[in-house]
Amino acid sequence: MVADIPLFKGLAKEQLDEVVNSIADQTFDRGQTVLSEGEAAEGFFVLVQGKVKIFKLSTEGKEQILHFVGPGESFGEVPMFSGGRFPANAETIEKSRIFFFPRAAFLDLIGADPTLAMNMLAELSKRLRQMTRLVEELSLKEVPSRLAAYILYLSSENESDDVGLDITKGQLASLLGTIPETLSRILGKMSAQEVISVQGRKLKILDRTILEDLAAGGKFVI
Amino acid sequence: MVADIPLFKGLAKEQLDEVVNSIADQTFDRGQTVLSEGEAAEGFFVLVQGKVKIFKLSTEGKEQILHFVGPGESFGEVPMFSGGRFPANAETIEKSRIFFFPRAAFLDLIGADPTLAMNMLAELSKRLRQMTRLVEELSLKEVPSRLAAYILYLSSENESDDVGLDITKGQLASLLGTIPETLSRILGKMSAQEVISVQGRKLKILDRTILEDLAAGGKFVI
DNA sequence: CGGGTACTTGACAATGGTCAAGTGTGGTGG
DNA sequence: CCACCACACTTGACCATTGTCAAGTACCCG
Predict the structure, then answer these.
(1) Distance (Å, whole) CA B69 – CA B196
(2) Angle, to 10 degrees, between the axis of helix A143-158 and the axis of helix A114-140?
(3) A184: Cβ under 7 Å from strand D?
(4) Of A207, B14, B16, B153, which is least surrounded by CB within 10 A?
(5) Of B110, B137, B164, which residue sits at a domain end?
(6) Would you call A127 and B128 a contact, using CB atoms and an 8 Å cutoff?
(7) CB of B60 under 7 A from strand C?
(8) Is the pLDDT of residue B217 over 90?
(9) Do the Cβ atoms of B165 and B120 come closer than 8 Å?
């Protein structure tokens, strides 16, 4: 099972054994806090099953989701290499099984095997790319653009014009850097213009051209 | 000189030699493009002297600065480990001397020496932390908050209430995710309320308490 | 001294957030 | 099995923040 985690791909058997011996297996119910911003990090986490959101909170309680973590993905690695404290919060949004990997054992391993270091570099680079895109969208695009980009992303994932949201609309709003009211209004307008159709959490793309134009920053009036 | 670059700190002499043999020394005038978003990466860069901005552009030409690069810092490493293409643009804002490090030689070295891998992990982690803070500010705070946080950061850097901007106000606006007009107005209001004084690019903190409250998301009316 | 760039200021428009009051809807306990 | 409750979502009226457009001033560099 540990061998299926991308981060540990390519590791020699004896090192996989060491990984297995180091980790602690934990189970969380939906809605539980896994780690909190500012907390000293004793290690990092790998999600085996379930779903986790990584997010920031404003002083007034508004939430910005940075990204979601799915099975096989790790989170909370940043303080292993700099700072020592978590830069954001992590909370389960489904019942989840999580492996905890203590700091010292991991740093030993990463010093010993360049494969693990390269895997980690690949993971952090991917994350940096995601964050760059998020900054771009928040700063340079309006909410309809961000929503259009997200719908197109979902559509490309399952290669279909029918896309199902696997998160609540409230969470989608938080991921897009807005609030449920605004998202609801924009979905309503897109629906009225027959760009998409909306049935609960089921969306259908009706006019891909307009979505693509919007995602690129187009000023189509919705 | 190469030994002074944080990324290469702790490397054995023979490996430093290899670094020196691999790099290409380049000089750029102010305002020149070093790399462009989407371009295939043949290697990455280390700034020796001068200053570089890393930024994204919207389709309408608005710019969001992600961060600045100072002497001794590297940039353009992300595609070494994932994707193969640069996620953003880099342009000199001063005459700069830049080392270019080709991909293959670097990957060889990083596989051979865990020190280099750890240095790179530290660098990417630091960057990820920066980006997380940028997302937080863009999404959860208003422009006066971001400006206050930036002024306090500058003040903590040189441990003084007198801070000098080392960039133009236009660039500061782009870094804060706004436009020069808005920045100008907010500086004007802060000045009128005697929170700071503004003389060209020289700022002086007059009321630190209010700045700190603003930076934390406070709703002080300016 | 001249020209371009950086910066400022004003009037206006629009995006999106706030507050308030609904309308479903699914899951749980009686 | 159904009623009810909590929660997700929607809709409306309003307003704050910030961006746009336009014009003008200051300032630095050659």
Answers:
(1) 27
(2) 140
(3) yes
(4) B14
(5) B137
(6) yes
(7) no
(8) no
(9) no
> pTM of the full predicted structure?
0.96
Q: What pLDDT shows up at residue B63?
A: 96
Same domain? For A161 and A82 the reply is: no
Tell me how far apart the alpha carbons of residues B173 and B171 are, in angstroms, rounded to a whole number: 5
pLDDT over 80 at B166, yes or no:
yes
Q: What gap in Å lies between CA A200 and CA B62, rounded to an integer?
A: 36
Interface of A with B in 38-57 (CB under 8 A): 56-57
Distances (CA, A) of B144 to B96, B113, B188: 32, 45, 11
What is the percent of chain A where pLDDT is above 90? 91
Helix or strand (DSSP H, E) at B54: strand B52-57
Regarding whether B185 and B83 lie in a shared domain, the answer is: no
Whether CB of A177 is under 7 Å from strand C: the answer is yes
**Distance between CA B68 and CA B49 in Å, rounded?**
13
Average pLDDT on A111-139 reads 96
Tracing tokens 């895109």 back to the chain, one arrives at A133
Domain containing B15 equals 2-137
In this structure, what DSSP letter does residue A92 have? E
Cβ-Cβ contacts under 8 Å, B57 against chain A: 140
For residue B159, what pLDDT band results from cuts at 50, 70 and 90?
very high
Tracing tokens 């009706």 back to the chain, one arrives at: A206
What residues of chain B, 119 to 138, have a C-beta less than 8 Å from chain A? Answer: 120-122, 124-129, 131-136, 138
Residue A37, domain member (yes or no): yes
